[in-house]
Structures are given as structure tokens and as C-alpha cells.
Write a structure and sequence with these properties.
By secondary structure, this protein is an alpha/beta fold. The protein has a domain of 150 residues: P-loop containing nucleotide triphosphate hydrolases (Rossmann fold, 3-Layer(aba) Sandwich). 40% of the residues lie in helices and 22% in strands. It contains 16 helices and 14 strands. Strands 6-8-7-9-10-11-12-14-13 form a nine-stranded mixed sheet. A five-stranded parallel sheet has the order 2-3-4-1-5, sandwiched between helices. Helix 9 crosses helix 13.
């Protein structure tokens, strides 16, 4: 099955010959190898690049095991790349297999592979692309070690638009499946619900959890599990280290210390299991340090982790919108706006109201509220109230789970159906 990942392919094309090493990062099994070896390589060949000038090496493959030795890899590359004036493309997949743990621990000297690739960059006729992540080296390590010579392309699981393009159902059924099973590409090859559930469970247990425990030498795996489950069950809710510590201690966890919780949270974020959104004071134009919101990179993994026990449509929809905005390149915050209120005795007080998302891209900004349904005028006023108290002229949007076409109300607020929002490649205005 071929699923177009057009936005990521465009990012690769835009970065061609920019003098940097292109680093494709992302959560395990989200399609990094397929993007590089199939979609991008096909594009190069269709553009007239000779197959001899595309050097594609998957270092995880047994047939390429000899090239995990840097001396062998260096000799092979210098043999393949001639100075005949032609341009060459080097595609290296799973580069962690050419790097030892000892090299990663040596902070004063980058691994030999990085030194080799950085040296090749001095040649004017080679363009380099790499991927890599497992328990030895997560995607975050890859981008860090190139020390200013890397250009990172963050790959995510399938968006709903990509998911819908690959299934033979209507958009309503497709979204129901997407909200349940998520967007990991391999999931689409499995027909039965039981196979999908088993795949997601195994992926979380045998790949992500195992990788994190080995990579970061986690001392208390049970505590890591409790943190993971707590975050999965509270997507879209404000939290911080202190709140997590209190919650987990209440379950009888004796090893729960602030420093350990903070470290394990960092590990889950570096492994790209969760992404955070900070709180932003719209009127004061400043960020709050805490609390913040955690969103799951893939909802299918989240649902399987919780054994399908918590299907809160409101928070799942919010998570999907957050992921969609991030995939479109927006920096996404949780907005806070103070609103003046009168108490029963006539005193004036101020209350902080939340805006689900403040999405920024360059000079563009959107204020977005997410609502599963709007049951009556009171619910509508409640959702629009924070937007009504923002003085600037940036677009203000209310997204609801409806197939209704986009429309603007008399205050200029844009009302969008979730399907229209997700299936449009750009933010509608």
C-alpha cells in the first residue's frame, strides 16, 4: 500500500542541496524509511537522477551489515562517489546501527559516523539524508549530534487526510476508525479490529516502552508505566510534575519523587510519545511555566494503552486538532485570557478563561476553540466567551464535530466542521 505523504516529500524537495544533512525524525514506525527510500527515491528517479547516483543503504538490513563498520562504509562511499561532475544522493536509514553506545556516551567526540558524514558534506557533489531511532539512539540524539549541520524534518503518524486517502469508506466512518486506531501506517494493512489492537499493544510494549527503558536506563519501569497511563488518561488536561506526583502517590507508589517524575516525563517527550503545549497569556503576552498540557502523538497507541477504557470524545477531538496543527507547521499553545466578572454582591473579579489553542505560523495567528457538540445557546456562549474577550484582529475559530459547511457569525467568528478542517491541507480563512 502506497500512502502519499506529500507535505513531507515537499519538505525534502525544498531542502535539496542546501548544504546541510537532512535528518528525518519521528516516533518509531511512523514511516520514516518509506518516505526516504520509496517516496523520495521515486521522486529522484522520476526527475531524471540516474539510479547509480542514488546511494541507498539500510543499515538495519543483514545484507548491509558490513557497512555498520565505519571504515567499510567510508571506503564504499568514496568508491561510489566520483568527481566526474555528477551529483549524488546518499540515503542512510537506521544509522544507529553504525554507532556504538560508547561513542554516544563520549560527549567530547562525536561518533565516527557523524565525522564521516560531516566530512562528506565538504564535497560539492553529494546531498545527504538520514533516519535513525531505537533504544541505542532516539531521533532526538540524531539531530543533536550533527551540531548545527543538520536540517530536521519531523515526521508524524498519518494525518486524517492521509488516512482517509488510503481507506475505502466514507469520511464519517473513516474518522471514527481514525479516532480509535490512530494513524500508524502499518495499521492500515490490518483488516480485523483484533489484529489492529494487538499490533498497537505490541508496538507500545515491545518498541516504545522497551526502547525508553534501555535507552535511558530506567530504574523504575512500573513508575514509568504509571506516568504513561496517567498522561494517556488525561490528554487535554492541565498538569505539572507536582500534580502528577500527587496523583501517582495516591495510588500507593513509594518511588514517586519530583526529580524522578520530571526525568521520566522528559524521556517520554524525547521518545516523541507525548508533545506538550504551554500556557500563553494572550493579554500579558507571556508564558506560564506550569501547568501545561500533554497530547499523545498517536491516539491509537493511547487507546490501546488504556485498553479502550476511556473514549472521551471531547479530549480525543482536541488531541486530533492539536496534532493536525503541529503537522501543518504551527507552534501551538494553550491560550489564557482574563475576563472581568461581577460577584453576587457586586464586586468585580477577574477569572482566567482558557482558549484551547493559539496557533502561530510566521505572521499568522489563529485562536481556536474545540467543541464536540453545541447543546443550545448557553453552550455556544460558553465556547465563544474567551474569543470575545480578545482585542486583536486575528482570526477566531470554533471547530465542532459536524459536516456543516464553514460560515461566519455576526461577530466575525469562523465556524468550522471538524471534517472540513481536517481534510483541508491549509488553514481555511
Amino acid at each position: 500500500m502506497i500512502i502519499a505523504r506529500d507535505s513531507y516529500l515537499e519538505q525534502l524537495k525544498e531542502r535539496m542541496w542546501n548544504g546541510l544533512i537532512k535528518i528525518v525524525t519521528g516516533i518509531r514506525r511512523c514511516g520514516k524509511s518509506f518516505l526516504l527510500f520509496r517516496l523520495f527515491a521515486d521522486y529522484l528517479r522520476a526527475s531524471g537522477v540516474s539510479p547509480e547516483h542514488i546511494i541507498a543503504i539500510n543499515l538495519e538490513s543483514e545484507e548491509n551489515e558490513q557497512y555498520c563498520d565505519i571504515s567499510n562504509l567510508s571506503a564504499y562511499l568514496r568508491q561510489r562517489i566520483s568527481d566526474d561532475g555528477g551529483r549524488y544522493y546518499l540515503l542512510l536509514d537506521e544509522i544507529q546501527f553504525a554507532i556504538s553506545k560508547q561513542e554516544l556516551r563520549d560527549k567530547d567526540n562525536p561518533p565516527r559516523l557523524y565525522r564521516l558524514l560531516n566530512g562528506l558534506m565538504h564535497k560539492q557533489n553529494i546531498d545527504i539524508y538520514v533516519t535513525g531511532s531505537n533504544s541505542k539512539m532516539l531521533s532526538n540524539d540524531v539531530s543533536t549530534e550533527f551540531r548545527g549541520r543538520g536540517d530536521v524534518i519531523r515526521l508524524h503518524p498519518l494525518s486524517f487526510r492521509e488516512f482517509f486517502s488510503a481507506v475505502d469508506t466514507d469520511k464519517i466512518t473513516a474518522l471514527d476508525d481514525y479516532m480509535l486506531y490512530g494513524g500508524m501506517p502499518q495499521m492500515l494493512t490490518m483488516k480485523s479490529p483484533s489484529a489492529r489492537l494487538e499490533y498497537a499493544r505490541e508496538l507500545f510494549a515491545e518498541v516504545y516502552r522497551k526502547d525508553i527503558i534501555e535507552r535511558y536506563e530506567i530504574e523504575f519501569p512500573d513508575l514509568l508505566d504509571k506516568i504513561t497511563d496517567t498522561l494517556c488518561s488525561s490528554v487535554g488536561s492541565l498538569t505539572n510534575v507536582a500534580k502528577l506526583t500527587t496523583t501517582i502517590r495516591s495510588s500507593g507508589e513509594s518511588k514517586c519523587h519530583h526529580e524522578t517524575i520530571a526525568r521520566y516525563l522528559g524521556c517520554l517527550q524525547e521518545a516523541m510519545i507525548f508533545t506538550t503545549a504551554k500556557r500563553y497569556d494572550v493579554k500579558g503576552r507571556r508564558y506560564f511555566d506550569y501547568p501545561m498540557k500533554f497530547y499523545c502523538e498517536d491516539l491509537g497507541l493511547r487507546n490501546m494503552r488504556l485498553n479502550l477504557r476511556q473514549q472521551d470524545e471531547t479530549h480525543i477531538m482536541e488531541n486530533i486538532i492539536f496534532n493536525e496543527l503541529v503537522q501543518r507547521g504551527y507552534a501551538v499553545d494553550v491560550g489564557v485570557v482574563p475576563i472581568a466578572e461581577k460577584t453576587l454582591d457586586g464586586r468585580l473579579t477577574r477569572k482566567n478563561c482558557e482558549i484551547d489553542f493559539v496557533a502561530n505560523l510566521g505572521y499568522q495567528r489563529y485562536y481556536i476553540q474545540s467543541a464536540w457538540t453545541l447543546d443550545g445557546e448557553e453552550k455556544l456562549r460558553q465556547e465563544l466567551r474567551p474569543l470575545m474577550n480578545i482585542a486583536d484582529s486575528f482570526t477566531k475559530i470554533l471547530i465542532t464535530k459536524t459536516t456543516q459547511p464553514p460560515w461566519r457569525d455576526e461577530q466575525g467568528f469562523l465556524h468550522l466542521g471538524l471534517y472540513d478542517f481536517l481534510l483541508n491541507p491549509g488553514m481555511p480563512l
